[in-house]
Amino acid sequence: MDFLSGEVTRNMAKTLKLGPTNCYFLKAESGYLLIDTSLPEYFEAFQKSLEGVNVNLSEIGYLLISHSHDDHAGFAAEIREKTGCRIIAHKNAVESLKQGTIINVGQFLNRQAHFMMSLYNWAKRRTFEYTPVILTEKDIVITEDNDEVLREIGVDGKIICTAGHTDDCISVILTNGDAFVSDACMSNLGFLHYRPIEVSNLKQVFESWQKIIDNGAKTIYPSHGKPFPVEKLIPFKEKYAPSP
After folding, report:
1. What distance in Å separates the CA atoms of residue 70 and residue 88, rounded to the nearest whole number?
2. Which of 25, 187, 193, 232 could link 225 by a cystine bridge, Cβ 3.0 to 4.6 Å?
3. What is the mean pLDDT of residues 145-174?
4. How would residue 104 be classed by pLDDT, with cut points 50, 70 and 90?
């Protein structure tokens, strides 16, 4: 079954795989910071599978939405309703979250990506919609790279803006080098060579890869696929990055 699988990473982050998406729990000063949800239909599976990673729903104090696509924000509203958690998101995600749908649509990386994703969306009867998430004053809106927000909640790391897949994508880099990069990189489809299956700005994809490297990433934890060492990005950046 593809809807629940739990494991603990070497830095004691907890991973929960729900359908296509890896959701990550990072221990905060009080409870947990959850990075992303999955598609809307996985909320029930999410609740049932929390016991497998030893997390209570009430312990989720913060939810970081890496970007506003439905496979990352799909049941964010339901989690907030159940927990009262604070949401962390990029300013460019605010309107999409409010509408509960994807408004910053990019282009497929290539024809193969187009075929694979179209087939998946058809099989899943994907609507790209989810319960709207309206941010409030207590939520945290990111406008630029931020060294303070995570430390204030007891997570030893920083948030960096990693546009390219979308213009609202943010990543978490811990001081130990663990990098939770959302869809800035993917490892689930070999032909992608770690590139996103869909991009809004290809040049920014590789600029974001460089930012991830420059901010001390050692191990990449993508939203789609298995972790891999950051060194694997370098040859593909050199191969595919557009010339200046």
Report:
1. 16
2. 187
3. 97
4. confident
